[in-house]
Amino acid sequence: MAKEVLYSSTxxxxxxxxxxxAILRGLAPDGGLYVxxxxxxxxxxxxxxxxxxxxxxxxxxxxxxxxxxxEEELKYCxxxxxxxxxxxxxxxxxxxxxxxxxxxxYHGATIAFKDMALSILPYLMTTAAxxxxxxxxxxxxxxxxxxxxxxxxxxFADVPGTRIIVFYPKHGVSPIQEQQMVTQKxxxxxxxxxxxxxxxxxxxxxxxxxxxxxxKELDEKGFQFSSAxxxxxxxxxxxxxxxxYSYTRLLKEGRIADGEAINVVxxxxxxxxxxxxYYAKNMGVPIAKLICASNSNKVLFDFFKTGEYDxxxxxxxxxxxxxxxxxxxxxxRLIYHIAGDNAAMxxxxxxxxxxxxxxxxxxxxRDKLTDFYGGFATEEETxxxxxxxxxxxxxxxxxxxxxxxAVYNKYREETGDKAVTVIxxxxxxxxxxxxxxxxxxxxxxxxxxxELADELSKVSGVEIPAAVTSIRDAEIRHKTVVDKxxxxxxxxxxxx
Length: 496
Ligand SMILES: *Cc1c(COP(=O)(O)O)cnc(C)c1O
Description:
The protein is α/β, with parallel strands linked by helices. The chain contains 22 helices and 15 strands. It has a domain at 94-111 and 234-463: Rossmann fold (3-Layer(aba) Sandwich). The strands form 4 sheets. A 6-stranded mixed sheet has the order 3-4-14-9-10-13, sandwiched between helices. α3 (54-65) packs across α4 (71-81). The termini are far apart. The model has no long low-confidence stretch (mean pLDDT 94). Pyridoxal-5'-phosphate is lined by residues 112-114, 147, 230, 267-273, 322-323, 400, 426-427.
C-alpha cells in the first residue's frame, strides 16, 4: 500500500486533512490552496499503463493522490464521468500536425478542457460528502468569464444533493458562451448575469464565501458552499491523468522510446493546467520542458524571465479570453513547492501580492524553475498561426491553442530543441468562430456567431459540435440579471 497523501494549506500550519475533505472545502480557511504533503510515484511502468484505456489510466493516477477514496468509490466516479458525454471513445485524442502532437482536451460536453475535471468533480464531491457525513446540500458558487461556468453547470446539473449558482458578466462573455449557459437545464441550476465585469463577479462570490454570518444562517437551512474553480484540488488531480495518458499513447504508437523525454506546451491563464503537467512530471512522466504560453497578458512570461511576479499592468482583452488573467491563482502552489514546501514564505509572498500587487522570489527558488520555459504570443501571432497551421496542414485550432502553438514555434526556433512535443489543445475552434474566421481572413461582421460557425464548418470540413448545434434554438431558461451589489440577495432567492 502506498503512503496516504494528506493535504495542507499553502499558507499555514492548520493541520493536515484528507483528500475528500480538501475537495469539500475547496479553499483553505486562511485563503491558501490545498497541496499534497508528498508527490507519489506511479506504481506501474508507463509501458504497462500504455495498455490501459483512459478510465483505467485515470484510476492508476487518481488513486495515488486521492488516497482516502476506496477503489469502488473512485471507479464509480471515473466510470460516470468519462462516458458518452464525450464525443469520442478515446476521450482525449492525440492529433499530429505541424511538427507536434495536439492533445485534444475539448471532446466533452461543453467543448473546452474544463470538462476534463468538471465532469468528474461532482462525483468526487458527492462521494466526499457521503464519506464525511455531510448532511447539508452543497451549493457550488462559481464566477465565470465563460468556460468554467458552463462546464460546471453541465457537471452538476441534476446531481442529487447539490445546487449550482453561476455568475457571469452580462456584457463580458462571447455570444456562444452566453447561450450555452442561459439554456442550461436542471432544476438545481441557477445562472445569473451581473451588471459588472468578471472581477466584480469573482469579488462578489468571494465575499459571499467568507461571510461567516451567512454561512451560519445557511447551515441552519441545510446548505453549505463549495467551489468548482481550479483552486479545488478535485479539479487539479483529474487533469494530471491526460498528461500520463498522452505519454503512454506516444509510447504505444512507437513515437517515442521507453524513458524518452517529451516537451509539453500549455496555453495558460490560472496556471491550473500546466501545474497538472508539473505534477505528472514529478510523478514520473519523462517531461523535459514545461512550456508556459501566455497571451498579451504576459505576467507569467515576465515572471519566468525575471523572478518577479507583477500584476500592476493593464488588463488586455484578447481573442483568447479564458487566458485573460493577471492573478494566476495556481502559481501559488508552485511557489510553495519551490520554496521547499515552506508555508511561511508562501504566505509572505501572497501578502505582498495582495498589498503591492507584486513579489520577487529568491535565486534559490529561481534555480528550481529550469524545467519551465515562458513564452507569449501577440494577437497578430495568434491569428497568423491559426491561418498558417490550417493552410499548411488542414488542421484547425482555436485561439487559445494557437497561443500555445505560436509560442512552441518560437521556442523551437530559439533553441533548436527537436524533442517530441505535446501541445494541450484547450478548446474547440467552434467556441470562438468569429475570432477563428477572422484569423482565416474570412470574417463577416454582418453574421452572428452561429452563422459564422456554419461558415467555419464549410471552410474547414469539420462538423459543428453538438454542443453548439444543440443550443442554437434551445429555450432560454435563465433570464435573471442583477446589479453586482445584489449577488447575495440573488443567492438567497434561489435557496429559499
Ligand atoms: C481555462 C482555459 C485556459 C487556461 O487554463 P488554466 O488552467 O487556467 O491555466 C486555456 N484555454 C481555455 C480554452 C480555457 O478554457
